[in-house]
Amino acid sequence: MSCIPSLIRLAEARSTRTRGMHKTEKGAERMKKKVSFIINPMSASGKTGQRWPSLAPKVSAAFPNSEFIFTRSAGEAETLAYKAIQDGSEQVVAVGGDGTMNEVLNGYVKANKSNHDHPVSIGLLAMGTGSDLCRSLGIPRRFEDAISVLKQAPQDVDCGRVTLGEKVRFFDNIASLGISGEIAKHFEKYGKTGAFSYITGLFKSARAYDKRGFSIDYRSPNQEWQHYELPDAFIAIIANAQYFGGGMHIAPKAIMNDGLFHCVLVKSVSALEIMRYLPSIFRGNHLKHPPFHDFHASEIKIKTTVPSWLEVDGEPCFQILPNQAVHLTVDSARLSLHLAQGAKAVHKA
Predict the structure, then answer these.
(1) What's phi and psi for 45, nearest 5 deg?
(2) Which of 21, 125, 137, 200 would give a disulfide with 339, using CB separation of 3.0 to 4.6 Å?
(3) Number of domains present in the structure of the chain
(4) CATH number of residue 252's parent domain
(5) Cα 32 from Cα 29, distance rounded (Å)
(6) CA nearest neighbour of 128 among 54, 46, 198
(7) CA 174 to CA 242: how far, in whole Å?
(8) Tens digits of per-residue pLDDT, 278-312?
């Protein structure tokens, strides 16, 4: 935590220098696109905050008219992204993990519902524990290469909308219900400690996982409603992109600009079966095995027989009670997103 005050002082000093520029310099600066970097210094177990002082000059060189805004608490990136857009930012970049990106996404969607007269795009500098979205977007892990992606023209892609009663949340990567929701709650309590934390969390949560069933109604690509019962449910994946859980290629057919979710259902499996299927899940060739069932849908409603947590982009979102139905829909072309050319989860525009 000690790195946060010094990082904030660095950002404030940088802003002061910008405000003190000569008038002609300020006029030239206005001609450049304003870019806001929303930085979660605690992502990757605090490594983002430790690394940022050495990375900031590279960002400033690539984006002269940029500002660095640091989060101080969980959930704050959403508010900061919303305010940055309202204040005239034309590009907002999440610096952190998939959870930080989700918060920026929700701030972006909220701002786009308000009145502002300039186009806005969002991007990601992945520095979190899992960084699953960057795999689908083709964003390189090397920092300098990732910055170059942010300078490319954005592309319109879909996002998912989750509705539970009056509550609404958006996601760019994956929403899921079942064992993954319990893992997300485990991480919320104990934190993530590294690349293999999802697998260790999987086995810990599986031991305490209560048997449950899912009742599923979904709108298929031909617009017809279908019904599916999963009486012994392990997990239900509703995927806009392809990866989750620190590199698991769980939804290899997901395309982020086709107007559809790739849904993957998994029936209850033993710890031994989990071990058997994990290699194929990481490779993305698991769908041929018996526990897996997949389909495409533009809309899906799920009921559960026991209280179950829904996670979105790796973070616990809503607890679904047995008398409730969670409703997920695709918002087509909702996001203007910076991604690499040839990204596997996006069709060429």
Answers:
(1) 60, 35
(2) 137
(3) 2
(4) 2.60.200.40
(5) 5
(6) 46
(7) 8
(8) 999 999 999 999 999 999 999 999 999 999 999 99
The two three-digit tokens of residue 235, written as one number: 């997990």
Does 329 lie in the same domain as 188? yes
**Amino acid letter, 121:** S
- What is the average pLDDT value for the chain, to the nearest integer? 88
Which tokens sit at 276? 């058997």
**What's residue 74's pLDDT?**
87
Is residue 191 scored above 80 in pLDDT?
A: no
Token pair 């539970």 in the structure block, residue: 164
Both 33 and 81 in one domain: the answer is yes
- The C-alpha atoms of residue 215 and residue 62 are separated, in whole angstroms, by 50
Q: Where are the strands (E) in the chain, listed by range?
A: 35-39, 66-70, 91-96, 121-126, 155-164, 167-171, 174-178, 214-219, 225-230, 233-239, 261-267, 292-297, 299-304, 308-312, 315-320, 326-337
Domain that includes residue 19, residue range: 3-152
3-state SS assignment for residue 36: strand
Q: Do 203 and 139 belong together in one domain?
A: no
Here the tokens at position 15 are: 């802003």
Q: Give yes or no for residue 28 having a pLDDT over 50.
A: no
Question: Are residues 321 and 187 part of one domain?
Answer: yes
Encode pLDDT of 100-118 as tens digits: 999 999 999 999 866 556 7
Do the domain assignments include residue 159? no
The phi, psi pair for 252, rounded to 5°, reads -65, -15
Q: What is the pLDDT of residue 206?
A: 78
